[in-house]
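Supplementary Methods S3. Input chains for the assembly prediction are listed below.
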Amino acid sequence: MYFLLLLSNFATTYKDSKDFVGNFYICTLVMATIGIFDSGVGGLSVFREIRKRLPGENYIYFSDSAHCPYGERTEEFIINRCREITEFLLGKGADIIVVACNTATAAAIKTLREEYPVQFIGMEPAIKPAAQMTKTGVVGVLATAGTLKSDKYLRHKEKYASDIIIAEHVGEGFVELVEKGITSGPEAVNTVRHSLEPLIKAGADTIVLGCTHYPFLAEAIQEAGSEISNEKALQLIDPAPAIAKRLMEVMDAEGIPHNPENGSVTLHTSGNKDILQRLYDSLI
Ligand code: DGL
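Predicted structure tokens for the full assembly:
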């Protein structure tokens, strides 16, 4: 009886508070590690939201910048990269993996779920919230070519956009810009203007950022938007907060413990370490 009571007290402590017993248990026995990856540095925009909700976890982030962009690659290429990265993250002790890349989610998450014994959290195109927010009835979607033609995206569109008009455009040059570490200034505004203009001309007041690199360009998108039209600021929808919430739910459902503090962050890249570190420092 005492033992059971102790256990139930312990369970409460361990989930909700930061006292000594809770921390001691978590630090010594059950420190979970969350793996996050993207074709490049874009997934840091997802990591930022995850970290807000779960500040004390252990994180390993992998940026596949040497093979970025994935947007125009074949499905086979992306699946193979995702397998390699998954094996790397599992080798580093990941207990759960966030595919912080819309293009990789669309191409590979089904295969990853079939082949590896961990939970994968993928990106969702944020058409549903955008459809609820638009006043003009026109939602603009910026994403990679791979995402826009994927079954997952097309299914979402069919399900959530029956009452609204969707205007789509590939964010041409966006990923390359962010991979160079350029997120603001005239070059950023000029680059985003080209892809944004057709969406605004079609009447979009709400723009889905359908690639995890694009939130880095949010200010440039607003600036270009105000140059194209004098209407009020665009509503930009970044799915990252919803992904962070989903990660928490899955961790809870799987019994993966939350670590309240003192977690670590390790950054890995197949490309330029300085840009990854700089964007990480400026964002998180
Ligand atoms: N960050 C990526 C996404 O969310 C991909 C960009 C790319 O590699 O083309 O789709």
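The longest helix spans residues 75-91. Residues 38-40, 42, 68-71, 101-103, 144, 147, 175, 211-213 surround D-glutamic acid (CB under 6 Å).
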